[in-house]
Amino acid sequence: MTRKDEAYNYIKNEIILNHLHPNEVISENQITERLNMSRTPVREAIKELVADGLVMFRGRENVVTPLTAADVQEVYELRSLLETYALKKTINIIPIVALDKLEDEFEQAYQANDWDAYLDVDTRFHALITHLSGYPRLKQFLNILKAQTARTRHVSSYNPHRMSRSIEEHKEIIKWIRLRNLDEAEKALAYHLQRVYDSVGAYLNYIN
């Protein structure tokens, strides 16, 4: 991992975990001191985060991009369109053994009530759909959208029922992918993403 990648991952995680809040100034000095690196990789990382839409320039300062209700709606609608399209390209080649493993890991996360483990499995499940598409630009666009939606995921942990419901939604998607039933798999995926969007109101209340 390069120093730029290290800085990128650090700042991105701070934003996703809401340790850096919307409109908060990102201090290059603090990051260079915390990560014990020069300004150059930090500045390169910030430029990449600007391209991802997580950071914006405001005058001479770098600030965390605010996330409005309209932003969230746009991001989830686009993600649903692109991810269901990716599913069309991958449904017949997604390995059943990979689905079995992910389903087991979802269940383990639920039994342990481990939100972080659940989020990790969720990330890998959706990445599986995208990465097998063979469309690098589709993967790139979805990764940018997922970086935006990731900002809402940890706050959903305040809903005690969200993990169990989400896992059931994932199991429904997995069931139809196993059967290579595109119509039902698309419906299940779109329904899941809509339910995630519906739960984001708690996040918007939290940051506002």
From TrEMBL:
Membrane spanning residue stretches: none
Record-linked InterPro entries: GntR_C, TF_FadR/GntR_C, Tscrpt_reg_HTH_GntR, WH-like_DNA-bd_sf, WH_DNA-bd_sf
CDD domains: WHTH_GntR
Domain HTH gntR-type, first and last residues per copy: 1-67
Gene3D superfamilies, alphabetized: GntR ligand-binding domain-like (1.20.120.530), Winged helix-like DNA-binding domain superfamily/Winged helix DNA-binding domain (1.10.10.10)
Transcription in keyword set: yes
Any one Gene Ontology molecular-function term assigned to this protein's record: DNA-binding transcription factor activity
PROSITE patterns: HTH_GNTR
Protein's UniProt keywords contain Mitochondrion: no
Top-rank taxon: Bacteria
Protein name: GntR family transcriptional regulator
Taxonomic source organism: Limosilactobacillus pontis
